[in-house]
Amino acid sequence: METQEQQRGQRLLDRARARSRPLDRVVRAVAHYREREGSTLAAAVTYYAFLSFFPVLALAFAAVGFISAYMPHARTELVEGLQLLLPGMIGTGPGQLSLATLEAAAGPVAGIGSLAVLYSGLSWITSMRSALQSMFDTPKADQPGLVRAYARDFVMLVVIGVVLVVSVGLAGIVTAASWRIGDALGLGEGLTWLITGSSVALGIVANVVLFVAMFRLLGEPQFSDVAVRRGALLGALGFEALKQASTWLLASTSSQPAFQAFGIALILLVWIYYFSRVVMFAAAWVATSEQTHPEQTHPGQLTPRHRSTLPGK
Asked: Which of 35, 169, 53, 56 is nearest to 115 (CA)?
């Protein structure tokens, strides 16, 4: 039973929501996130993502090894792009991977990684689809046969992986090229703020593409394109903040005993979990995009603008 303080706090919140649309928007998204147990869904996705990360990373590194071997002039851009995506993993220091190592092991790594992806990568796709459809309240459709299901999930894994690597990697390469052009023109530190801002903007654009792809291909939301794009933009901002924070986190924890014992895997696990939470909250934002403002109904009630198409509604 609610106490008088809780009831009073709820009334104050309802009045504040009635006066402020942005506040009401946030409250509805948070409520949906909690009702669908977004943190639990994110933890389940993290489990499979952590397992699938290494074979997917193996394939990506094999591709980088092939590209670096046949396009030596692109090595600097490749390293800088990978550092943006995976801070601290590429380099010549202890526990890091060098491009020479990737070039030498590209063939065997590609074969082993391809086999491992069939198990762990497909499990991540399945868990992410289930989590997003739960957040979106997507109507259950007839499931395809086992072979068709694996083929569909493999295509989705390839598409999502390509979008991730291309979008984020392209942003890193463009940023690195901008620095080199600035140095060649003698601009020096004068345009540091401009190049930094441009790289962040490119990263956000790349993230939006990634989130839209995940939402549409995996979640199959029954919402408008505008709602999906707005949720993708919110997720993109959160993802970019995580990427920027990861560099600081690696620098601040590199001397800690826990980091020395578990290495990058510890940071990676935490990073994947919070990325998954960002995805789930962005999905909750999309799912609550077509609800009315409380001033149109009774404060505290959340009523859809359109009649639900779900069975039994």
From this structure: 56
Q: Which residues of 134-148 are buried (b: 16+ CB within 10 A; e: fewer)?
A: bbbbbeeeeeeeeee
How confident is the model over 203-237, as pLDDT tens digits?
Answer: 788 889 889 988 998 888 888 899 999 999 999 99
Measured CA to CA, the distance from residue 94 to residue 96 in angstroms comes to 6
Residue 94 is classified by DSSP as T
DSSP-derived letter for residue 294 is: G
> What's the mean pLDDT in 8-23?
72
In-domain check, residue 312: no
The domain in which residue 82 lies consists of 27-138+146-290
Contact present, 98 and 91 (Cβ < 8 Å): yes
Look at residue 33 and tell me if it is in a domain.
Answer: yes
Number of other residues whose CB lies within 10 A of the CB of residue 306: 7
Q: Which residues contact 303 (CB under 8 A, 6 or more apart)?
A: 291, 292, 296, 297
Q: Decide: residue 162, CB within 10 A, 0-12 exposed, 13-18 middle, 19+ buried.
A: exposed
Under 8 Å between Cβ of 53 and 264: no
Residues 235 and 279 sit within 8 Å (Cβ to Cβ) = yes
How many domains in the chain? 1
Q: What is the pLDDT of residues 49-66, one digit of tens each?
A: 888 777 766 666 677 667
Q: Let me know if residue 309 belongs to a domain.
A: no
Distance CA 214, CA 251 (A): 30
Q: Which of 107, 76, 72, 104 is nearest to 90 (CA)?
A: 76
Has residue 103 been placed in a domain? yes
pTM of the entire structure? 0.70
